[in-house]
Design brief:
Ribosomal Protein S5, domain 2; about 30% strand; globular; alpha+beta; 2 domains; about 280 residues; five-stranded mixed β-sheet; 7 helices; lpxc deacetylase, domain 1
């Protein structure tokens, strides 16, 4: 198991709150896992909320929760930060930064990773991972998330926004960490995305109050309002980024959350991801 060598802090605007938010990632002991501190909120699937729209939200009760945590958790999971105390100042939202996980991944690399030890011990603690033996599928209309047993971890994601924007259109992307390259190079920089019409509707409804141009790739009809794309199939790669973050909630304290096997998703959402986590844990 690993943790960060020392703490790092990021300050930015919350996508939903529109307020300045601060997140501080601190070292933690082996077996503590990743957890948020306003009150202690474990990064666990059991706390994922049902009424998810644009972001993952974890809550222990109506007054104590954390929102927009998927990009940070994605970076921690993929880079191998198994144990971390994550302190939040502000409304309880993780800053959206540039809409990707790159800044979180960069900060982890900057401070470095070290083995996480248990109390009073210098022995290294093994990192375990899920390896389900049966196929699992959850659906919502034509959207689905499926687990297929395999010897390695592989994530595949398909998006289809043709009915909303041909600029996004249909995209498929697949990433096998042991074969294709590093998360930081292939996945972390992919930004969140959507259509101009959807973002304006969310803004008018009060779901988002933070910046748009700086933190999302916005499609308007057959072109992007703020091009260019940073990565090929950036939209599908961002869905893989989100999936890694949501799967990280399956981690037992100090363990990996993304299972060994093939996770295949099509037209998914945080709500469908949460339903898939519940099926995996059943």
């Amino acid at each position: 198991q690993q943790t960060v060598r020392r703490s790092f802090t990021l300050i930015g605007v919350g996508l939903h709150s529109g307020e300045w938010e601060t997140v501080r990632v601190c070292p933690a002991r082996a077996g503590e896992g990743r957890y948020f501190v306003r009150v202690r909120i474990p990064a666990a699937a059991a706390l994922a909320q049902d009424n998810l729209r644009l972001s993952m939200r974890l809550a222990v009760d109506d007054d104590n929760g954390v929102i927009t945590c998927e990009h940070l958790l994605s970076a921690l999971e993929a880079i191998g930060v198994d144990n971390a105390r994550i302190e939040l100042e502000g409304s309880g939202e993780v800053p959206i930064v540039d809409g990707s996980a790159y800044q979180f991944a960069y900060e982890c690399a900057r401070v470095g990773l070290v083995p996480a030890h248990a109390d009073g011990s210098t022995a290294e603690v093994p990192r375990m991972a899920w390896r389900p033996s049966e196929m699992i599928t959850v659906r919502d209309g034509d959207a689905f998330v499926q687990f297929i047993p395999d010897a390695v971890t592989k994530l595949t994601y398909g998006v289809d926004f043709t009915y909303k924007s041909t600029a996004i259109g249909k995209q498929w992307e697949s990433w096998t960490p042991t074969e294709d390259g590093d998360y930081v190079d292939l996945i972390a920089r992919a930004r969140t995305f959507g259509t101009m019409q959807d973002y304006m509707a969310y803004f008018r409804a009060g779901y988002i109050r933070g910046g748009l141009e700086q933190c999302a790739l916005i499609a308007n009809g057959d072109k992007f309002w703020n091009p260019p794309m940073i990565l090929p199939n950036e939209n599908a790669r961002h869905k893989i980024l989100d999936l890694v973050g949501d799967l990280s909630l399956m981690a037992e304290p100090g363990m990996a959350g993304v299972p060994i096997g093939h996770v295949l998703a099509y037209k998914g959402s945080h709500r469908l991801h949460a339903k898939f986590l519940a099926a995996l844990a059943a």
